[in-house]
Amino acid sequence: MIEVTELHPAFNTCNIFYSRELLERVGGFDTDAFQVWGGEDCDLAWRAIDAGGEPVFEPGALVHHAVDHVGPGGMLRVAARWTSAMQAYARHPGLRRGFTYGVFWKREHYLLTRAVLALVPRLPWPIRALLAYPYARSLWSRRQVFGGGPALAPFCVAIDLTETMAVTRGGIRYRRLML
Fold first, then answer.
1. pLDDT tens for residues 70-107?
2. Are 107 and 169 members of one domain?
3. Labelling 59: which of 1, 9, 15, 88 has CA 20 to 30 A away?
4. Largest Cα–Cα separation, the chain
């Protein structure tokens, strides 16, 4: 299930409506630039906004949209594909409003980076604990999302590492600092 509870700068197409006139004016999805899914919906929304479209959130709207359950391997493959989606974030600076500290695509990427810094050998243990604790707490709370216990933590770390590397590759490719 995908639940959208507020207007978000990513404008996922799973729950968005456009007038035909606006879609024709902006040319629809940019299938030349976005040849795999990911980011094309954000790009379309921001081009529509640039063309005068005004985003409005309707809390009473209910949209039934397919949600594919791809399993653990599929989730890792999806996480690795976010490189190309970063093109939308490079094209439309307003999308970055949702970034943590303007750099990290997801809060988990920021927390993971802190946890990795905790591995620096010469840091005193209290500093290491302060760096790593928020990520460990994040892993603990995510067990409720995926269903499972502490054994799920390595999988969540793998997803976060894969996404962070994909976003970093996108940042390099599109010359924008993104992690």
1. 888 999 998 998 888 899 989 998 888 888 998 999 99
2. yes
3. 88
4. 61
Is residue 39 classed as helix, strand or coil in its secondary structure? coil
Question: What pTM value is reported for the model?
Answer: 0.84
Instruction: Give the pLDDT confidence of 160-179 residue by residue, as tens digits.
Output: 999 999 999 999 999 999 99
Rg of the chain in Å (alpha carbons): 18
∠ CA 88-34-163, nearest 5°, is 60
Alpha-carbon gap, residue 114 to 94, rounded angstroms: 26
Q: What is the DSSP letter of 5?
A: -
The answer to whether 167 and 86 have CB atoms below 8 angstroms apart is: yes
Strand partners, 100: 104
Based on the fold, state whether residues 116 and 171 are members of the same structural domain. Answer: yes
140 and 60 part of one domain: no
Cα dihedral sign, 120-137-111-151: positive
Residues in the chain, total = 179
User: Domain range for residue 165?
Assistant: 71-86+98-179
